[in-house]
């Protein structure tokens, strides 16, 4: 009996040890999976089954915020290869990852701010789990099926198993998958550089920086070839697939025990990594043209040049470096190329494409890099200014010897002259007489219903500067002037209105009125100077439109929305602009938008939702239907105009002159047609393919269509619009058919192309 008892005890111990061992294995295996109801906190991580990758929260250097990311477990620096919701950060040690009640993977913090990680493919049930794989791919599974994966949303790193390119092109699930650099090495927000397939030739692989690009490789029909020499190219392979719906490159491991991957650095450098065992090595690949020295300064460096080399061009035999080249169509030959290049001081040289005679190659890089190619090619290259570097330098030095002393002497004379000359010169009757005359004129109103509303008082508005006609600068700064024609009677009302109204409102997205001039027959308004003129001069220009990447366009859209929100809700006066259009959106030197031209603006009283005018004024293509037909205007009239502008910014095309062959649709109708057909990306301006966010584009098109709905009551307010832009995951209503769905033709069948303000249309 003793031996039997001892045997049973030993057997029990063995089974206990086996049970503990099996539980330990199960618990280790569970480290790669997050299940509903569980939380992954800032001090915890998930580790892939083979111990290759780790998922958790990380804090960039010199930062107090944290992000969710994935990194190689063997990497001592723990540089993330993927970052979730990279534009969103959390206070350090406060964030956690969980699967919420509806099955979606979310990141939250102590403030209960919830952000859905898998917003591109939402769960339909709560039977989900998240798992980190040995490939570095984070997947969300629903009932055993993968419904979302991080590989579909790469950041700056190309890992084996990833694909980059264009997907679902003929469906409403269109996606462009590419790499985007970090903003700086310590900030994972989106940076200036993007890497992916060229939209115009999908066998090419490019890196973009704003409007410039550098081709780094291509598919030759059999294999993929880099322009630079990869360190261990035989340890991986790249395949290419193209059909009617998808065109993409897939990066795969070649069966070796060496693991390779690529990173697009924040400075545009492509870094190739290789891991053998636990050792990681790397090599940098320059984006410079392979025929140029590796220390060339012309690689996607957008340093604007001044027109120091004049506006003439001399020809050389050579070729253009591949970096910083933009290709544009030319309708009549080399003259078009010269015109386009001459219009932009940053364009250093050009080549006319003689082979097919259809376009120009415009070079925006460093002139020194261009001149190094003299005699090294057979193309005729036209270079801005003197193509001889040495001769040019001699002339420049000679001019400096002559000009510098002369300029110094001139400045001394001008300084003395300006010091003794009065800054503001009044009219013959003195400044007091000018102010009295101005006040008298501005008290007069043609609108009897609003008599006294804009009463101008010297006591209330004494701070408005009154300048003389001879003043060309205001305290040493450039100014912009709006001058009323001496023979114009109609414009006097608008002049008074703008002066009385605009000086009472101040906002960073409204143009600032600096002063006015009333001197004899002169009536002039003085504004802050806008270095980049108006929005329409960019988005409708075939060359300059490429300077507006999606980040700039989105910044402009949000700025216009904020300016309108201020006018409608937060200013001292509730103002309806009534003539909002792209030419009335001015851009400063930082491309900040400012709403201008308040000559037609009107005030709504607190108890007014809308009002009626017998004098309809506005611009064809931007006026809401209730205003154009019945003279009824409200804040929703401006919302309609904003919707038109929004769709014009996305598409780069004018509503009033939009033309589609064999169709009578205007831009609004075309946007509505593509939206219903699931072809929204057809509306996108092709010049910004490499920089756009598909989700942003879809959001803007939907908001634009909501703003241009037929009924004013269906349109959102600008407060609603701003909320839609700031909370991209909110459920937006489905837009109804827009107003002015087709091109409006007069009785004689002609369409006016005159886009100036209409101010004499009588309402029916």
TrEMBL record:
Ranges of residues in domain Apple: 307-387
EC number(s) on file: 2.7.11.1
Catalytic activity of the protein: L-threonyl-[protein] + ATP = O-phospho-L-threonyl-[protein] + ADP + H(+); L-seryl-[protein] + ATP = O-phospho-L-seryl-[protein] + ADP + H(+)
Domain Protein kinase positions: 368-730
Subcellular location: Cell membrane
Gene field: LOC107404298
Annotated TM spans: 398-419
Residue ranges of domain Bulb-type lectin in the record: 31-153
The keyword Transmembrane is annotated on this UniProt entry: yes
Membrane topology, record value: Single-pass type I membrane protein
InterPro entries: Bulb-type_lectin_dom, Bulb-type_lectin_dom_sf, Kinase-like_dom_sf, Pan_app, Prot_kinase_dom, Ser-Thr/Tyr_kinase_cat_dom, Ser/Thr_kinase_AS, SRK-like_kinase
Family note: Belongs to the protein kinase superfamily. Ser/Thr protein kinase family.
Protein name from the UniProt record: Receptor-like serine/threonine-protein kinase
Matches recorded under Pfam families: B_lectin, PAN_2, PK_Tyr_Ser-Thr
Keywords on record: ATP-binding, Cell membrane, Disulfide bond, Glycoprotein, Kinase, Membrane, Nucleotide-binding, Serine/threonine-protein kinase, Signal, Transferase, Transmembrane, Transmembrane helix
Lineage: Eukaryota, Viridiplantae, Streptophyta, Embryophyta, Tracheophyta
Originating species: Ziziphus jujuba
């Amino acid at each position: 009996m003793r031996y039997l008892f001892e045997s049973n005890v030993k057997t029990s111990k063995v089974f206990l040890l086996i049970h503990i061992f099996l539980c330990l294995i199960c618990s280790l295996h569970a480290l790669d999976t997050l299940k509903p109801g569980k939380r992954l906190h800032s001090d915890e991580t998930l580790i892939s089954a083979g111990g290759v990758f780790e998922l958790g929260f990380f804090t960039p250097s010199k930062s107090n915020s944290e992000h969710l990311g994935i990194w190689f477990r063997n990497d001592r620096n723990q540089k993330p290869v993927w970052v979730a919701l990279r534009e969103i950060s959390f206070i350090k040690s406060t964030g956690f990852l969980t699967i919420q009640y509806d099955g979606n993977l979310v990141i939250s913090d102590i403030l209960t701010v919830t952000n859905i990680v898998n917003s591109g493919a939402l769960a339909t049930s709560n039977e989900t789990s998240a798992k980190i794989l040995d490939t570095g791919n984070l997947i969300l599974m629903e009932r055993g099926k993968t419904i979302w994966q991080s590989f579909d949303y790469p950041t700056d790193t190309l890992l084996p198993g990833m694909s980059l390119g264009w997907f679902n092109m003929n469906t409403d699930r269109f996606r462009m998958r590419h790499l985007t650099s970090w903003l700086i090495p310590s900030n994972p927000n989106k940076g200036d550089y993007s890497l992916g397939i060229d939209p115009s030739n999908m066998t090419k692989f490019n890196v973009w920086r704003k409007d410039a690009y550098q081709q780094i490789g291509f598919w030759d029909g059999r294999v993929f070839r880099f322009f630079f020499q990869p360190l261990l190219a035989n340890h991986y392979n790249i395949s290419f697939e193209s059909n009617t719906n998808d065109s993409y490159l897939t990066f795969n491991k070649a069966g070796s025990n060496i693991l390779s991957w690529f990173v697009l650095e924040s400075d545009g450098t492509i870094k190739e990594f290789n891991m053998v065992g636990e050792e990681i090595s790397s090599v940098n690949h320059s984006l410079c043209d392979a025929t140029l020295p590796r220390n060339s300064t012309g690689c996607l460096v957008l340093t604007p040049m001044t027109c120091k080399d004049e506006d003439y061009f001399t020809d050389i035999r050579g070729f253009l470096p591949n970096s910083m080249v933009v290709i544009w169509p030319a309708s009549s030959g080399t003259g078009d190329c010269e015109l386009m290049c001459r219009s932009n001081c940053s364009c250093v040289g050009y080549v006319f494409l003689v082979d097919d005679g259809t376009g120009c190659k415009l070079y925006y890089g460093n002139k020194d890099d261009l001149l190094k190619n003299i005699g090294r090619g057979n193309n005729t290259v036209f270079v801005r200014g003197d193509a001889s570097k040495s001769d040019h330098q001699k002339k420049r030095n000679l001019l400096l010897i002559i000009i510098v002393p002369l300029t110094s002497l001139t400045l001394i004379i001008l300084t003395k002259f300006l010091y003794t000359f009065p800054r503001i010169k009044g009219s013959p009757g003195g400044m007091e007489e000018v102010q009295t005359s101005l006040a008298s004129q501005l008290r007069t109103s043609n609108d009897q219903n609003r008599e006294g509303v804009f009463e101008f008082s010297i006591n209330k508005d004494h701070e408005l500067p009154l300048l003389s006609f001879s003043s060309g600068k205001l305290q040493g700064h450039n100014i912009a002037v709006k001058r009323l024609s001496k023979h114009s009677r109609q414009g006097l009302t608008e002049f008074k209105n703008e002066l009385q109204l605009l000086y009472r409102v101040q906002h960073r997205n409204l143009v600032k009125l600096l002063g006015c001039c009333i001197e004899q027959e002169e009536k002039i308004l003085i504004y802050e100077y806008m270095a980049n003129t108006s929005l329409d001069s960019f988005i409708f220009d075939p060359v300059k439109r490429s300077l507006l990447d999606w980040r700039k366009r989105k910044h402009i859209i949000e700025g216009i929305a904020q300016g309108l929100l201020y006018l409608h809700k937060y200013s001292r006066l509730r103002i309806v602009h009534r003539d909002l259009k792209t030419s009335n959106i001015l851009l400063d030197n930082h491309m900040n938008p400012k709403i201008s031209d308040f000559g037609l603006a009107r005030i709504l009283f607190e108890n007014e939702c809308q009002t009626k005018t017998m004098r309809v004024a506005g611009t064809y293509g931007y006026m809401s239907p209730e205003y154009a037909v019945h003279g009824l205007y409200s804040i929703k009239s401006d919302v309609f105009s904003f919707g038109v502008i929004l769709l014009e910014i996305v598409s780069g095309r004018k509503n009033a002159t939009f033309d589609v062959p064999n169709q009578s649709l205007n831009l609004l109708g075309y946007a509505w047609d593509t939206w219903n057909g699931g072809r929204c990306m057809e509306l996108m301006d092709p010049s910004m393919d490499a920089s756009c966010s598909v989700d942003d584009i879809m959001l803007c098109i939907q908001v634009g269509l909501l703003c241009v709905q037929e009924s004013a009551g269906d349109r959102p307010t600008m407060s609603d619009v701003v909320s839609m832009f700031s909370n991209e995951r909110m459920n937006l209503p489905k837009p109804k058919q827009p107003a002015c769905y087709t091109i409006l033709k007069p009785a004689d069948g002609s369409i006016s192309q005159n886009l100036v303000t209409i101010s004499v249309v009588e309402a029916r």
